[in-house]
Design brief:
The strands form three sheets. The protein has an eight-stranded mixed β-sheet with strand order 1-9-8-5-4-2-3-11, with helices on both faces. It is α/β, with parallel strands linked by helices. The relative contact order is 0.17. The protein has two domains: 237 residues, Aspartate Aminotransferase, domain 2; 127 residues, Aspartate Aminotransferase, domain 1 (Alpha-Beta Complex), CATH 3.90.1150.10. Helix 1 runs antiparallel to helix 9 and helix 3 packs across helix 7. Helix content is 40%, strand content 12%. The two termini are 31 Å apart.
Length: 382
Amino acid sequence: MIPFNKPFIVGKELAYIKNAVKNNLQLSGDGPFTKLCHQWLEKNLGCKKAFLTSSGTGALEMAAILFGVEAGDEIIMPSFTFVSTANAFVLRGATPVFIDIREDSLNIDETLIEKAITPKTKAIVPVHYAGHPCSMNKIMSIAHKYGLRVIEDAAQGMMSSYGNKFLGTIGPAGCLSFHETKNVISGEGGALLLNDAELVQRAEIIWEKGTDRKKFFRGEVDKYAWVDIGSSYLPSELIAAFLYGQLQCAGKILKKRQAIHRYYTQKLMPLAQAGKIKLRVGQDSDNSNGHIFYILTKSLQERNALIKHLKSCGILAVFHYTPLHSSPAGLKYGRSCGKMQITDHVSSVLVRLPMYYEMTRANVEFVVNKIEKFYNKNNFSQ
């Protein structure tokens, strides 16, 4: 069996968990390993301040509160994304405004953003799909022109870069995920990266359930109180300990994922050149983290047949998002701006191939061999 994803241990994760329990005597959040993770993220990614969260979803929810998103606001985002991107803002009473994606990158189409802006627009949320960067220069320019906030959904973008900046550190805020399907993992977990120093003080309060507890522990106040809205976004020290072991090996993980990604491209290129499948143009560029390897088939029928064939061979491949704009909650809480032709098409033909740190070249060759056999046996029309 070749699973779609496989959790892994690459460094001192288990030793650090033991250390948290036996030596640090702290399992609740904001302990020594949480602080080490914050320091690593701030130093190595270059953000002003990092806050570990219990999930990438939690990071998005924190950002929504931090930027004062409220009922009546509109948030521009792609429909081709995970539900958390929209949920974080719907929970604040805002309306997601969905726009189409680019055919080449599957990222938000920056040329459609201005058409979606209204007097109610509060923020733009670009999603860096598969770890490939959105056109952030253009997006930041539009945001500056209209006085909008940019919240990067970089859940899949850990250590991918755009120009000389890492994803999640370009807009005022960025959100990472360390879910077990991501490159750097802690089971569940995430981080809010802040790139505007003025946001740090309130974010700290939101992170601490709406209290000024951090000020109390620093000796800045003689008691702490409830001063703002917030929630329990801190992960436990067990999660932080495991994550710190992974962060210390992040460079090693990045190189391995990129190598697997390049090998998939090399082995599948003949099928792409024969017109059997489509591969992302430039998907092995140096600034991408090799998070997802996907192929595009010609039809929904072909996609489903390929996934079924691979499963019969002991290979778990999956499709990705059902578009938010056409989902029941998307129809209820959001609205679309313009046609969603690319989103609708891609969601029906995309296949995600197995991709995990411990995957070998032999595993890749086995997957590709079974895909080749499928197309040698079948002839699907457009």
